[in-house]
Amino acid sequence: MAAEYYVRIKKEYAAAIIEDLEKMDAIEIFEPSADEGDVQIPQWQQEEVRRRIVARRSDPSLLLGREEAEAAIKEMGK
Fold it and tell me: What distances in angstroms separate CA 28 from CA 3, 32, 34, 75, one per listed residue?
């Protein structure tokens, strides 16, 4: 099963491990093209986010606290 990850190598020894994995044909190292790094956000989603920002600014009672937000997220996962 192939998966894509973006990795920032912070230690020299880690770079050596990555190179060894490449030599074993366990990974492929490549530079992503400019298009691959860009995420296109649909216009409708941009507009919805802007609408929600305006709504929360005009009525802060719509905002949830941390505990409420975590509970809502857990509930959605059921």
Answer: 11, 12, 18, 39
Amino acid symbol at 40:
Q
Q: 15, 9 in Cβ contact below 8 A?
A: yes
Measured in degrees and rounded to the nearest 5, phi and psi for residue 41 equal -100, 125
Q: Which two tokens stand for residue 38?
A: 């860009």
Three-state helix/strand/coil letters over the chain: CCCCCCCCCCCHHHHHHHHHHHHCCCCCCCCCCHHHHCCCCCHHHHHHHHHHHHHHHHCHHHCCCHHHHHHHHHHHCC
d(CA 56, CA 40): 25
pLDDT tens for each residue of 7-24: 788 888 888 898 898 899
pTM: 0.41
